[in-house]
Amino acid sequence: MLSCLAHGNDKVQQDMMERLREDHFYSHETRLIFQAALRIHAKRIHINWVNIEDELRASGHFDVIGGSGKLTEISAFCPNSKNWQRYFPKLEEARYRRSLETLANDIVVRARDRELPLQELKEWSETSVMKADFVIDEDDRLSTAKSIEGAIDNIEALSRGEMRRGIPTGLRALDDYLTLGLRGGDMVVLAARPAMGKSSAAMQIAEHVAVDLRKRVLIFSLEMTSTSLMERMIKSRSKISLQTLVSGKMNQFQLDAIRTATNQISSAPILCDDGAGKSIGYIKSVSRRAHQREQIDLIVIDYLQLVRGDSKRSRDNRTCEVEEVSNGIKELAKDLNVPVVALAQLNRDPEKRNGKPSMSDLKGSGSLEQDADICILMNFSEEELDAYSQTPKMEFIVAKQREGPTGTGTMTFHKSITRFLPA
Questions:
Q1: Is residue 157 situated within a structural domain?
Q2: Given the DSSP bridges, would you call strands 419-422 and 407-414 parallel, antiparallel or unpaired?
Q3: Could you tell me the sign of the dihedral formed by the alpha carbons of 319, 320, 324, 330, in that order?
Q4: What CATH number has the domain bearing residue 121?
Q5: 301 with 272: CB under 8 angstroms?
Q6: 73, 138, 223, 294: which is the annotated catalytic residue?
Q7: pLDDT single digits (tens) 40-88
Q8: Segments forming the whole domain that contains residue 202
Q9: Cα 77 from chain centre
Q10: How many domains, the chain?
Q11: Per-residue pLDDT tens for 210-250?
């Protein structure tokens, strides 16, 4: 490859420099030669053996690589520069195998460290394997050809009046503003103060996507057990309150509603992990495994501030931890091309100033505001005068949307059945 590089014209050298990296070269000597070629290329000078020799002498590496004899030996390998494209796949394969070998050695060392917690070892190993996998298909990911094709298809569809939507939430007040729906790669933050129904709203979205649209949903519930979530979902869908259930006096219509809701939810493609105190590394690894088995269409995390960071830095600083978790959720959405709805808490500042919440009220870190593609804030409507009402009017404030309008929609929250219905 070095011989092809030095014999190539400017176009060949430009193409090769866009593909080659230092770790493509195994020996110390060939890496030093490639580094010299990189410095020459950075100066916008044509790469040839004379320039490489001068650069190696200037850096003090000429004798280290073996002097003129080594350069002459390498130069004779490939007088035809066009052959580089035939050699490159073998070079790339060798680099990938070396990266896996290094990773395997690291895994062995960590596996023998009895003081390292098992869960931390699992999360580290899975994340490391994903990074190693990225090495082999990096060039395909960096190519914009497929992205441009997709963009053209979307633009042509819009010009024909065909709206290519993502997943609707099923909450009319939100869908009026989320004209493109929840799309792959979107990080959606749904935030409210405690006990305002954000979990109910998220579960209603998950229910709609899984039951009505028959799409696969993965829920991470760090606060409630999966049994409690399913119980709440059944009551919400059947519109039967807890008081009615415990009374033991349900009529036939109500019994049928419970049975229908139970059958619909039990057959829906819903996955739920209800482990407490999970880290962002754990959530990413579980999501990837589930997505590899069968495509996930929506991920819900309830709620973000209960997710732990993985790094030591995050454990020592709460703001850094929330920032790490937020960045991890955004990475997960992009890597799997799946919308992720992350619930979050707001601080008490809106109550102190007696006003509506804003994105600056997100608890923990400003990175949530920055990472989110869509940010929805929940708040009691100004028309709601009774703080103890069982059917309060709730505002869904779309405070941020990268590709759509912002605004406020209102729905009625029926607390007894934990369900939002049109106002």
A1: no
A2: antiparallel
A3: positive
A4: 1.10.860.10
A5: no
A6: 223
A7: 888 888 888 888 888 888 888 888 988 888 888 888 777 677 778 888 8
A8: 166-422
A9: 45
A10: 2
A11: 999 999 999 998 888 888 888 888 888 888 887 777 777 77
